[in-house]
Amino acid sequence: MNFEAITIRDIAKELKLSVSTVSKALRDSYEISGKTKELVTNYAREHNYRPNPIAQSLKQGRSKSIGIVVSTIDNHFFSQVIDGIESVAHNNGYNVIITQTHESFDLEVQNVEHLTYRSIDGLLISLSTETKNIDHLKRLHSQGLPIVFFDRVSSEIDTHKVIADNYKGAYDATDHLLQSGFKNIATITSSANVSITSERLEGYKKALTDSGITINDDYIKYCPHGGKTTEEIEKALNELLSLDIWPDAILTASDRITTTTLALLHKLHIKIPEDIALLGFTNTNLADVLFPPLSSVYQPGFDIGKNAVEMLLSLIQAKRPVEEFETRILPTKLYKRQSTASSNSRLVDDANSIKPDGRKKDLK
């Protein structure tokens, strides 16, 4: 059964009024008498009349829709960003259309193309891990489409951007591990393409060098697709565990990488933090109830979404061309839990400390 929405023409025919009169009555025009307005609005309400958004957008030159591009909505961080976006967009009369890239560049291009066919008024985007070329965005920006980047951003388009303080988040996390007595600190991070990777690596490295520790490139592992598959995280972890000297702590750089690394360490019967401490960037609400409770760097996802859409609306509603742009950097927060308990207070039985492959584990 097909649902057919009632139109202005239907109302006009039923009430024996002109289409123009009905239209003006629904807009509360001063040209229409109160009696006629009441007649029209009552009929419209009783028959569930809704304005045609496509027709309105053609008339007004706006669709009142905003496109959103993220990697996956099952990522706790991105779901919180979307909540922040919707809280502002809906209050301003805008609908949001959400698309996922699943870390695919090709899908990102397709999604952006689809959104522009829907005549969106502006675009909010966090780039995929595969994205190296943003010509598809440059073309739209040059044609006047308002674009705001968040989280994973690009410097190739001059526009507003909103990010977490990834550098300080990684610095504080690494420094916490150092202060807890860990010295051989590895990191499993995302694709080298994306901005968050370089920002977090910079903070990680600076904390190490500030403590007089030489950077060991063997302790830095990349997940080219941001941990999209368990296999690439497992590969990175296995490479760390194949080293002669194991890391005594691992800093992980995303929701998916963090929680998957925790699960893999459990699968290998590696005790946390007795064998290896774990601290990760994650916005999961379950960090407190994981085993052990997980130390984490929390990003203000909701506030990032709010700031991003507010900046986009300022571009959409601007009366004149905007020539000055801003990059907002929002603070992260470090939560210290049992997964990074001080190495100085741990009791470890060297004789019983065995690597998964049967070799004795190096505790250094």
From TrEMBL:
Q: Which terms in the Gene Ontology molecular function aspect does this entry carry?
A: DNA-binding transcription factor activity; transcription cis-regulatory region binding
InterPro entries the record matches? HTH_LacI, Lambda_DNA-bd_dom_sf, Peripla_BP/Lac1_sug-bd_dom, Peripla_BP_I
SMART domains referenced in this protein's UniProt entry, alphabetically:
HTH_LACI
Coiled-coil annotation: which residues?
none
User: Which one Pfam family would you cite for this protein?
Assistant: LacI
Region Disordered, as annotated, extends over 340-364
Q: Where is the HTH lacI-type domain?
A: 6-60
CDD domains (alphabetical): HTH_LacI, PBP1_LacI_sugar_binding-like
Q: Is Thylakoid one of the keywords UniProt gives this record?
A: no
Q: Say which domain of life the source belongs to.
A: Bacteria
Keywords, ordered alphabetically: DNA-binding, Transcription, Transcription regulation
SUPFAM superfamilies linked to this entry: lambda repressor-like DNA-binding domains, Periplasmic binding protein-like I
Transmembrane stretches in the record are: none
Fetch the Gene3D superfamilies from UniProt: 3.40.50.2300, lambda repressor-like DNA-binding domains
Q: Which PANTHER family match?
A: HTH-TYPE TRANSCRIPTIONAL REGULATOR GALS (PTHR30146:SF109), LACI-RELATED TRANSCRIPTIONAL REPRESSOR (PTHR30146)
**What is this protein's record name?**
Substrate-binding domain-containing protein
Source species, please? Hufsiella arboris
